[in-house]
Amino acid sequence: MTAEPLPAWAFPPPGGFTADDLDRIPDLPPHTELIDGSLVFVSPQKYFHSLAVDLLISGLRQAAPKTLRVCREMTVTLNRNNRPEPDVSILRAEAVTAEAHETGFQAADVVLAVEVVSPESETRDRKRKPQLYAEAGIQHFWLVEHGGGRCPVVYVFELDPVTRTYVPTGIHHDRLKLPVPFTIDIDLTEIDRL
Q1: Is 130:143 a contact under the CB 8 Å cutoff?
Q2: Euclidean distance between CA atoms 175 and 2, whole angstroms
Q3: Does residue 103 contact residue 132 with C-beta atoms inside 8 Å?
Q4: Strands 140-146 and 110-116
Q5: What's the pLDDT at 6?
Q6: Number of Cβ within a 10 Å radius of residue 32
Q7: pLDDT, tens only, 118-153
Q8: CA separation for the pair 180, 50 (Å, rounded)
Q9: pLDDT tens, residue by residue, 146-180
């Protein structure tokens, strides 16, 4: 029995991969991210992850003004070596074309990035990605953790323009009610009905 040869993308180039490489490399697994020049592959997600993303997408789409778009699992180019895929993003409407051919968006077009923490990506979701989003100037960041039962807990952060780091502005258990980046009111306990 002969082993299949590894694909070329299994071997990073000198200096690592770039954000543009994600669009050029054939046959990458779905939802591949680029973090610090390295390809990151997503493992199968737990059902909670899917439910939490669905709940937020539904609530945000109902509340978002026409100047913004709610997006699920699309990469965001932060710089040459970083193109993560937030679970949920709020984008400026002008970043989305009528044809919807985009394979990703620019950090300048992102108003909010949301990460739902997964066991296999805890460190990336809690530490590295927020750091990268803040350095790229994304104004709002939410971190969603698994609370008791199915209910999520949403940690809300805003960018401090002086330090270019996130500062916490709230922890939401049963209801996510915020005035920014637009008026939001999501009943987090509705996850039990999904």
Answers
A1: yes
A2: 56
A3: no
A4: parallel
A5: 84
A6: 17
A7: 988 999 999 999 999 999 999 999 999 999 888 999
A8: 24
A9: 998 889 999 999 999 999 999 999 999 999 999 99
Neighbour tally for 100: CB within 10 Å: 6
Distance between CA atoms of residues 96 and 113, nearest Å:
16
What is the pTM for the complete model shown? 0.95
Return the structure tokens found at 30. Answer: 């779905």
Q: How far apart are the first and last CA of the chain?
A: 47
The secondary structure of the chain in percent helix, strand, coil, rounded to multiples of 5, reads: 25, 35, 40
d(CA 71, CA 113) in angstroms, rounded, equals 10
Say if residue 116 is exposed, middle or buried (CB neighbours under 10 Å; 0-12, 13-18, 19+): buried
Site of tokens 């990458």? 28
Angstrom distance (rounded) from CA 108 to CA 96: 13
Q: What is the mean pLDDT of residues 44-71?
A: 96
Q: Which has the closest alpha carbon to 53: 144, 153, 125? A: 144
